[in-house]
Amino acid sequence: MVKKILSLLLFAAGISAHSLAQEAPVVGFQKERLNDSTVRLYFDVKGSSGTRIYRLPDGQDVLYSDIEFDSSSRPYITGKPSSMVAPLQERDEALEAQTFFHQDSVRWRQDVRISTTDSVVLKGELRFMYKRGDEFLNGSETFRFEIAPVAGSSDASPMGDRSLWWIFIAAFGGGLLALLTPCVYSMIPVTVSFFTKRSTNRTQGIRNAMFYAASIIIIFTLLGFLITLVFGPAALNNLATNWIANLVFFALFVIFGISFLGAFEINLPSSWMNKSDARAGTTSFVGIFFMALTLVLVSFSCTGPIIGNLLVLAAKGSYLGPLVGMLGFSVALALPFALFAFFPSKLNILGKAGGWLNAVKVTLGFLELALALKFLSNADLVKGWRILDREVFLSLWIVIFGLLGLYLLGKIKLHHDDELPKNDFGLPYLTVTRLMFAILTLSFTVYMVPGLWGAPLKGIGAFVPPLGTQDFISTSGAQRSVSETDHDDTGSSGLPKPVKYHDRMRMYEPEVVTTYGMSTYFDYEEALAVARKVGKPLMIDFTGINCVNCRKMEAEVWSDPEVMKRLKEDFVIVSLYVDVQNIDLPEKEHYYSEALTKKVTTLGDKNADMQVTRFQANSQPYYFFVDGEEKRLVSEGYGYDPNIKKFIRLLDDAKSAMQQ
Predict the structure, then answer these.
(1) φ, ψ for residue 127, nearest 5 deg
(2) How far apart are CA 435 and CA 446, in angstroms?
(3) C-alpha atoms less than 13 angstroms from C-alpha of 559 in its C-beta half-sphere
(4) Domain ranges across the chain
(5) CA of 366: how far to CAs of 80, 408, 419, 510, 558, in Å?
(6) Within its chain, how far is the Cα of 93 from the centroid?
(7) Which of 81, 195, 486, 534 is deepest in the core (most CB within 10 A)?
(8) What CATH class is the domain 486-659?
(9) What is the pLDDT of residues 137-168, one digit of tens each?
(10) Which CATH architecture is the domain 2-147 placed in?
(11) 484-516: per-residue pLDDT in tens?
């Protein structure tokens, strides 16, 4: 027993003077991506001939090695680490115990669950025990694996399988909406009846109608493919934040909206439809295909605005986005043609294309005008024109949705509207469905009214301009101008007042920041100096002026009382906007960015280059945590994930790492 105790003391004490003179085992680390969701980490220890390296713990091992990840890395770990080959075993008489070891060298592996769009840093320490000759020795090595997003993977929205399914479902809904427009709805019974009558038997009629439906899907899907092929995913994604593109979208949506309200019709050249219609007269499948093309062209005035909205939604940095979106849209559009071909006797349930279809079209027109203002707001915020500040934007939306509610109640009549249906007493009446839509619309209108006095509108916080653009805010019954709400010498939690870029950028501060009296910095170096001075972690918030997901994170997650308490008391926050193009850097700060392949001259470009080069990410929102010496405290980054409990754990991990 004494011998065993002495041996353990020798082992715990470390190595002898003789062993210090010998070369220690060489340690190495590697990583390999196995698939879209898994990365494998490798830990190599290679000793000289005759070295015994003890295995990872398994049961009651007396001697063992260990791989320890820090707290920020553990959520990504799946399973336990293991060796590539089975260990040897032998009873050690000095220890009077069975030992398990690898001879001369060993490679351990550990799988971690990280998607291709994530950017993560995994840290920890490898501690290994080994025996050389009669001496028990130990060694350790810290490790750090930086796992960047895979080139070509989408990370703007983020575009994983879930997002593609979401785009498909949203597009499918757009296709169902298009079915209710007069251009498409009125053609369903005519087209299906045509196929059933021209066919010699029911089987042939079904086959022809099915091919017709398939042709519609092929035509629209090819349209999505051509758009992607011509413009590419990066170009479409850049258009979403470009102020000129947003002005173009604004103009198009206004034109479509006014058209839907009945001012004029938007039609493609008649020669296109005449040529396709002539081809449709043939009896072959080619003729059926051209008949489907005729439907696409004829219905353009109704489906064009919906398709335009869809492409804006789907163009988020992935080649598959527009393709999947147009597939979902066309499947919904083709569905009734296939169903009624199987059950032609059910055509009578469609009824006549009466005035209710025009009501649907007019409703879409009001919605188009409301969406148009969002694009104008995007351009206005990027350029800093202050044309469409928050209260102006809300006033226009209140008027638009208020008028829509009155229209649905039958109080407003437009050019193509029919009279309301009459009841048994000869009096006009509203259908229950129309009344329900009117109630929803007017309720939404009332919901927006308090926002004119600065009330937080969490439900639409991602779409309205930030509270910093509001000219006045009513608090405790007293109105105050935003220009009068400047900070004192100290901001929230006693932090020094933000200085650099603050006067220009505070209008973009998230609504939750203004509401809860927080302070955010807009310059990385200034915020880092404050974090170093006060000894708090620095939360780096890579965001964008027109980033919808950023506003959703702030409205849904930051506003949570537990999250807000931690942000105000435990962190210094710097918001780095990557799309600010109206603030120029001093000429001495200009430089060429290899990551952006252009010269950096604006604050937005500087922040975007920093995110890509230092943090290997380029999507927003993205949150990183460092200490005053720029040492990363938790995983590489945290993207859009409105899970409040998960975000709280992230903040707690960052604070704990700072205190260690």
Answers:
(1) -115, 125
(2) 16
(3) 17
(4) 2-147, 161-388, 391-485, 486-659
(5) 57, 11, 20, 28, 33
(6) 61
(7) 195
(8) alpha beta
(9) 889 999 989 887 775 443 433 334 446 677 78
(10) Sandwich (2.60)
(11) 444 444 445 578 888 898 888 888 877 777 667
